[in-house]
Amino acid sequence: MDSVETFRQEAHKMVDWIADYYTGIENYPVKAGCQPGSVFSQIPVAPPEDPEEMKTIFRDFEEIIMPGMTHWQSPGFFAYFPANSSFPSLLGELLSSALGAQCMKWETSPAATELEEAVMSWLKKMTGLPESFEGVIQDTASTATLCAILTAREKFTDYKINDAGFGTGTPVMRVYCSAEAHSSVEKAIKIAGIGKQNLVKIALDDEYRMIPGLLEKAIVADIKKGLKPICVVAAIGTTGSTAVDPLEDIAVLCRQYNLWLHVDAAFAGSALILPEFRWMIRGIEQADSFVFNPHKWLFTNFDCSAYFVKNSESLINTFKLVPEYLRSQTNVHVNDYSNWGIQLGRRFRALKLWFVIRSYGVRGLQDKLRKHIFLAAELKSWIERHTDFELMAPVQFSLVCFRFHPAGTDFTEELNLMNEKLLLAVNATGKMYITHTKLNGNYTLRLITSQTHVEPVHVRDAWNIILDKAGDLKNSIKS
Ligand code: PLP
Q1: What is the pTM assigned to this prediction?
Q2: Is the distance from the beta carbon of residue 239 to the nearest atom of ligand 1 less than 6 Å?
Q3: Residue 245 CB–ligand 1 contact under 6 Å
């Protein structure tokens, strides 16, 4: 399919298909219901020797691939955190694919580098981060957190591990996070060679936030043992319940004990575009790094993670490598973002973000977020009013953590099993998709109202399905 004219015809058809897909998205079961191996078994073992027509490939896309897809952009998607997309973002992605640029250095596409610098500066203003912070787009929050931990490791060992590796004189480094921090912190500790037994998980208060007093105790105890505390990861919006760690108090400790402070706001960071949520980052000027994902709650296609650092020099000192074949003549200061992270090759991600911010405007984005938060507040009020349900955590943003708890069922195991059954039953309807976590050992249903196209009717329908399936479970207990 090398001819531009054939491409034009096929592309027009596909754009129509995409528009139809979004029009009818609610007709698909939200969660893929296929069995393991069912897609794989339909793909020929060997690739085709001869060219195939797009018509044939597309037929297989519809018949083999689509039944194996979970529809993340469906307004019935209330699971995990969303990876929400939007039409302007989709168009930006399309153009980025069309340009097909690999934007590793300024020179390999100056516009990509400079637009990235500009939109990261916009995001900084939109979220109220300190003016002096500098931003770079990473693929995911996991990568950003790994960058933060590697930078902390290097900074506190005078960039020696990068040079000489872990020698016998290397101190045992310690990193701290809350017991509800995302698993990407542990993964980063493993990859950074710090060792997961050196990740100290600090206990939580009754709203699932890190307790700063216990953090200090842990740091002091480690110093006494001759260990080297290097970093604290504070969560703004934990994955389980969107709890917000007390950043200001944590920041004071980090300054007192000279520790790197990394802030993981992967989901909830987007809420900072609303002035009423800025309290969450009091103390942020003390932080060394901060990440949030426009691909979670700012309508920008996965992947797009915004990573900000107080001092780009330590980041660049950790990652910079310029082999001969990448040397260039650029003699004015420009950002070569491949030196700001792990990967050399970089996609042109700034384009979709630019499209999104311009197309919605800051006010449009704020309106959408407020609507999501309002929908969660409504669901919260229905749960509070229902005697058979209870909230399991404070509702901070658009995530509601709750469980079915009919009178007379009080054993944790029994409740856990019943809520697991409820989750499976509501998801099996195909009309909605929720996921779970465990809070204090209690099976907790998580329903998040942050899908781009979610409307009040979808949340109301979801609640009715939950009530219906819970009613069936209650009846089965009685009989
Ligand atoms: N941090 C938090 C608080 C998260 O909730 C998540 C994912 O949900 C992550 C990090 C990892 O995000 P990513 O998939 O961008 O690596």
Answers
A1: 0.96
A2: yes
A3: no
Q: 114 and 155 share a domain?
A: yes
Domain boundary among 299, 314, 347: 347
The parent domain of residue 7 ranges over 1-31+70-85+362-479
**Structurally, how many domains does the chain consist of?**
2
CA distance 380 to 173: 42
CATH of the domain at 148: 3.40.640.10
pLDDT of residue 330: 67
Whole-number Å distance, alpha carbon 182 to ligand 1 midpoint, is 6
Q: Are 138 and 307 in contact (CB under 8 A)?
A: yes
Predicted confidence (pLDDT) per residue in 10-43, tens digit? 999 999 999 999 999 999 999 998 999 999 999 9
φ/ψ of 84, rounded to 5, equals -80, 140
Q: What is the pLDDT of residues 355-373, one digit of tens each?
A: 999 999 999 999 999 999 9
Q: How does pLDDT run across 52-96, given as a tens digit for each residue? A: 999 999 999 999 999 999 999 999 999 999 999 999 999 999 999
pLDDT at residue number 417? 96
CB of 264 sitting under 6 A from ligand 1:
yes
Q: Which residues pair with 399 in a beta bridge?
A: 448
Question: 140 CA to middle of ligand 1, Å?
Answer: 7
**Counting atoms of ligand 1 from 1, which one is nearest the CA of 237?**
3
The answer as to whether 315 is a domain residue is yes
Q: 81 in ligand 1 pocket by Cβ < 6 Å?
A: yes
Q: State whether 81 and 146 are in the same domain.
A: no
Residue 26 sits in the same domain as residue 140 = no
Helix, strand, coil % over all residues of the chain, rounded to 5: 50, 15, 35
User: Would 322 be classed as within a structural domain?
Assistant: yes
Minimum-distance ligand 1 atom for the alpha carbon of 235: 3
* Confidence at 144, pLDDT banded by 50, 70, 90: very high
Rounded CA Rg of the chain: 24
Burial class (CB in 10 A: 0-12, 13-18, 19+), 91: middle
The pLDDT tens digits of the residues spanning 207-263 come to: 999 999 999 999 999 999 999 999 999 999 999 999 999 999 999 999 999 999 999
